[in-house]
Amino acid sequence: MKQWQGYFQLLWYQFTSGAVLRLNKHHANTLARLSSLRSLKDKENQGEVQHDTRIYVNQSTRKESENDRESDDVWGFKDTSYRANPDGTVEVTGSRYLLSGCTLPSLLPWASDVLGVEVPRQPMLQTLEISIPEPQHINGEFLDSLRQVVLLRDDQISSDAKIRRRHGHGHTQEEMYAIKYGSGLARVPDLVVYPETESQVIGIVEAARQKGVCLIPYGGGTNVSAALRCPSNQDGENRVIVSVDTRRMDKILWIDPVNRLAQIEAGAVGSNIMEALAERGFTMGHEPDSCEFSTLGGWIATNASGMKKNRYGNIEDVVLDMRVVMPTGGVMTKGSSSVHPRESTGSNPLLSTFGSEGSRTIILAPLIHQP
């Protein structure tokens, strides 16, 4: 409080001494912050605010649109692709981008010139019908726990072959080639579950611990580190493998416009987060190339970087705290109801979550700073 008193004393001196008062950007921002805090203090005295500058949103960021379905076997949306025409032009299908519906007559000639080879007008390979591995292990007791203890509904548990395959690979060139032209994947998850609350994630982890089940957290499935590849029986993995898809946990829980903070569930997709924050006058500033599909939790698990990192920082600069479920089923977080300042008191175990590729925890709800 003393620093604010000193600041006002300086301003008062300039007023009373006849000095010309010039406010630079720093002064203006400081006064704006003080004005906001004073307004909140007045409301607190009137009983309108109780020591809290948060706006509790608790609203999903999900878009329910058939047009937003992801392609099954290539990067991108199902309605968008580059299509080579017999006359040598290239057409962008769909309608979501500025180039959608446009014809690109110079793309193939340019590629031929740069590569020094003649680019064929017809596909060199035909997509094959690659078989999808059957579930290699089934644990009935684990399934019973999911339904009777964790209380997952039928629509939160899937053994569909294509869904299991999609949860068994990322977007490396080797993986994408394998599912279209190669020998396929040796193994994919035996089951996919879709928790919707923190308590359900805790219940899934506890059931897996008791029944000896292997869990693989899943966000948008865009990683390029082969972290989603499942080890087969030949690799020595004889447990049931379950993919924990977090994308139904996609709410903005609260926004603090004064301290410029927000807590968002880990399954929220990047582009949806940006749109939801923009509606409230904020941004996150983290935009990796995969932001149309990747999730906030996935950004942390892969230690992601974005196109605007030089201005806003990487993901580790944006996230101040997070709630995670540990393999024991317990929840770990740095703070509770407030965000603690940086402390020189030893290591912060939550930092090991960055870049962990889902091997240590399941991320629930990160707390981010809004620039």
UniProtKB/TrEMBL annotation:
Pathway: Glycerolipid metabolism; ether lipid biosynthesis. The keyword Transferase applies. Residues 334-352 have a biased composition (Polar residues). GO terms for cellular component: peroxisome. It holds the Pfam family FAD_binding_4. Residues 332-352 are annotated as: Disordered. Residues 185-371 form the FAD-binding PCMH-type domain. One of its GO terms (molecular function) is FAD binding. InterPro entries: Alkyl-DHAP_Synthase, FAD-bd_PCMH, FAD-bd_PCMH-like_sf, FAD-bd_PCMH_sub2, Oxid_FAD_bind_N. Catalyzes the exchange of an acyl for a long-chain alkyl group and the formation of the ether bond in the biosynthesis of ether phospholipids. This is Alkylglycerone-phosphate synthase. It comes from Trichoderma harzianum CBS 226.95.
